[in-house]
Design goal:
The structure is a single chain. The protein is an alpha/beta fold. The chain has helices at residues 48-56, 83-91, 102-116, 128-139, 164-171, 178-192, 201-214, 218-231, 235-238, 258-267, 288-298, and strands at 11-15, 18-25, 32-36, 60-64, 121-126, 144-150, 245-250, 272-276. An 8-stranded mixed β-sheet has the order 1-2-4-3-5-6-7-8, sandwiched between helices. Helix 3 packs across helix 4 (128-139). The protein starts with 10 loop residues before the first strand and ends with a helix.
């Protein structure tokens, strides 16, 4: 626990046949916000200070490692999917299979709320986490007070794809030695960051060191990617979402293009769209005040 950004010690809980690692910020009786991270990302990618800003607005914050990432269960017995082959099969119109689907990640998140005794939560998901949050709102409306989908997509065909440079970063095997991993991390996030919010390389290296120490895992990331591909479009499911919905997207996102955020908002009746100028596929510190204020207002605090 740190004095500046106090949170609970990381703990493990068994849900849906696996173990998830999580921690919490804020008072146990405050309204809960469940933060769901993206592809291959760890719970500490929801930075401590960002979480504390939400606590200051009156919330209890819960963050966790999705399966196959960080310190949660790794499902190596399922092997390493070949993402390129899956995409080629999809382009031929073939159905693809994956070790698990986004619906399993939804069940993990709901199971975490069950284990913590949280009946309902405001759910905030980023990128793949936004996909999970969308399906959670559609399939478990009794558990989701509000939905905030950040830099995510509907998964429907025809939307613009990632830039070649961003796709190369997204799918490159993760370096297994610390020095090369830090260099790779800085390069990747320099590509992802928007023009108005460039990364600080030294701060990025410090954070990447923490990620490396917690554990990185190319095969787990690719199993998550396979889950996204095999789960298909969420457009039909989004039409059933009834909770208040906020969609946040940067206009300079090279990974999940702005058109995908617009499609997400269009697919949910009554959804509000917040486009942040100069933001890429990175929840940069410079946008935290705007994003936290938007989430807090949306969640009624």
């Amino acid at each position: 626990m740190t004095d500046a950004n106090p949170h609970s010690d990381p703990a493990r809980v068994e849900v849906n046949g696996i173990e998830l690692v999580y921690d919490t910020f804020g008072e146990p009786d405050a309204p809960a916000i469940l933060l769901i991270m993206g592809l291959g990302a760890q719970m500490i990618d929801w930075k401590d200070e960002f979480c504390s800003m939400l606590v200051a607005r009156g919330f209890r914050v819960i963050r966790f490692d999705n399966r196959d990432v960080g310190q949660s269960t790794r499902l190596d017995e399922w092997g390493h999917p070949q993402i390129g082959e899956m995409i080629e099969a999809m382009q031929r119109g073939e159905t693809v299979e994956a070790p698990y689907l986004l619906s399993d990640l939804v069940a993990d998140a709901v199971g975490l709320l069950d284990a913590l005794g949280v009946e309902k939560a405001h759910v905030v998901g980023l990128s793949m986490g936004g996909m999970i949050a969308q399906l959670m709102a559609a399939g478990h409306p009794d558990r989701v007070l509000t939905l905030t989908s950040i830099m995510s997509t509907t998964g429907e065909p025809g939307l613009p794809v990632s830039t070649p440079e961003a796709w190369a970063c997204l799918t490159a095997p993760l370096e297994t030695e610390l020095g090369p991993f830090l260099d790779q991390y800085v390069t990747k996030w320099s590509v992802y960051a928007g023009p108005q919010y460039p990364i600080d390389p030294e701060l990025a290296r410090d954070h990447a060191t923490r990620l490396f120490e917690r554990g990185t895992h190319s095969a787990g990331r690719d199993r998550q990617m396979a889950a996204i591909l095999a789960s298909g479009s969420r457009r039909e499911a989004l039409a059933s979402v009834t909770c208040p919905t906020l969609v946040i997207h940067g206009d300079s996102d090279p990974v999940v293009r702005l058109e995908a955020g617009i499609a997400t908002a269009d697919g949910i009746e009554g959804a509000r769209l917040l486009v942040i100028q100069g933001m890429g596929h990175d929840l940069a510190k410079g946008v935290w005040p705007q994003v936290v204020d938007a989430i807090a207002r949306h969640s009624g605090r």
